[in-house]
Design a protein that fits this description.
Layout: H1 6-10, H2 18-32, H3 41-57, H4 60-69, E1 100-101, E2 112-113, H5 114-122, E3 144-150, H6 152-157, E4 159-170, E5 179-186, E6 195-200, E7 203-208, E8 217-221, E9 230-241, E10 250-253, E11 269-275, E12 282-284, E13 287-294, H7 296-301, E14 303-309, E15 312-318, E16 327-330, E17 347-353, H8 361-373
């Protein structure tokens, strides 16, 4: 079986810290996730390979085995001298006994007792102390996203309002540690395995348990927050939506997300806006578009008409001979710019020629006379009569 370089698969150096390995794994897992690459066998294989690499390098014991032997096998023990595979030595090929004292002491300052080795391997004499579970570290709180529906007018003018946010805050009893320094117990989240199963599309994969940092053991959880380090809180938060937002805009309210742990700052609250449609106006970027009907006489003779804007009515001059579909611009009557509130888009008015619904005989006669005085074939350019 070909050996795999797990460090190369995750794109990290051999001396990479745990958080660097985790960051790289998350980035690659998102890139090759089956849900984002449906029916892509190559991405699915890469996702499995990335998961396999992270499963080994995120576990201290497994990583130690991999670093020593260049591959991982659950039957290998990085601390066992029998797995060294070194040639020569007093015990023949494959193992070197020269560093051990068979009488029970150590052969030199760095030697190991042969009796201790068999005690570790087969349980004879003494017991190996269980490692202490890691203490919680300061961790910034998670961000919160809340959708907010706005009217067209509210998006144009901006809005200040209060919303209800279900968030968390640092536990007052354990100060975010998740425990109060009690006895060490088996982690109830992963049932002592140090790993939890996650489902992604058609795949199931394991990842280190966040509650015990992958050790399978933790101190007795805090009775108030049940080990989470935070407690729930419902809060009324005042938010200000700036003028000019559009559907999909994200407005950040600092430190109103979930609470941090051990004094770390809370996450942020993000308001994601969804702007409703207007019965007359259409928005494209910071510009506004509207269609306004005009009469035959206004188009032919010219006129000054009223047109709607988001801020009220405005005057627009229609020159003589205006055609249906012609567009006119009202400068700086559009939306404020989010990047630079002192700038605004424009409003474009498209005129649409309308005819009277009921035409009297007198009007018809006038139109016939008009046609005689102005003989014109509008389809001439198309070669039509």
């Amino acid at each position: 079986m070909a050996k795999k370089d797990y460090y190369k698969i995750l794109g990290v150096k051999k001396d990479a810290k745990a958080d660097e390995i985790k960051r790289s794994y998350r980035k690659l897992a998102r890139k090759y996730h089956p849900d984002l690459n449906p029916n892509d066998k190559v991405s699915e294989d890469k996702f499995k390979e990335v998961q396999e690499a992270f499963d080994v390098l995120s576990d201290e014991k497994k990583r130690k085995v991999f670093d020593r032997f260049g591959y991982y096998n659950e039957n290998l023990d990085a601390d066992s001298p029998f797995a060294a595979g070194a040639a020569g030595g007093a015990g023949g090929p494959g193992f070197d006994f020269s560093g051990f004292d068979f009488s029970g002491g150590t052969a030199g300052s760095g030697g190991s007792s042969f009796r201790d080795i068999f005690s570790d391997l087969f349980g004879g004499g003494g017991t190996r102390a269980e490692p202490e579970p890691p203490r919680a570290i300061p961790r910034k709180g998670r961000d919160i996203e809340i959708p907010l529906a706005l009217s067209f007018q509210e998006a144009f003018s901006g809005l200040t309002t209060n919303i209800t946010v279900n968030r968390s805050e640092q536990c007052s009893r354990c100060q975010g540690a998740g425990d109060t320094g009690g006895p060490v117990v088996t982690c109830t989240t992963c049932k002592g395995t140090g790993q939890v199963m996650k489902t992604g599309g058609r795949l199931q994969f394991s990842q280190p348990c966040a509650d015990c940092e992958g050790t399978g053991r933790r101190r007795s959880p805090c009775s108030l927050c049940h080990g989470k380090g935070t407690t729930p809180k419902t809060e009324q938060v005042k938010i200000r939506i700036p003028a000019g937002v559009d559907t999909g805009s994200r407005v950040r309210i600092p430190k109103k997300g979930h609470g941090g742990r051990l004094g770390a700052e809370p996450g942020d609250l993000f308001i994601v806006t969804n702007v409703g449609k207007h019965p007359h106006f259409t928005r494209k970027g910071d510009n506004i578009y509207v269609i306004v009907p005009i009469s035959l006489s206004e188009a032919a003779l010219g006129a000054k008409i009223e047109v709607p804007t988001v801020e009220g009515k405005a005057q627009l001059r229609i020159p003589p001979g205006t055609e249906s579909g012609q567009k006119f611009r009202l400068r700086e009557r559009g939306f404020p710019s989010l990047r630079n509130p002192s700038l605004r888009g424009d409003q474009f008015v498209e005129v649409k020629l309308t005819l009277p619904r009921v035409i009297s005989e007198e009007t018809k006669e006038l139109l016939r006379e008009f046609e005689k005085l102005n003989p014109e074939n509008p389809r001439k350019a198309m070669g039509l009569g």
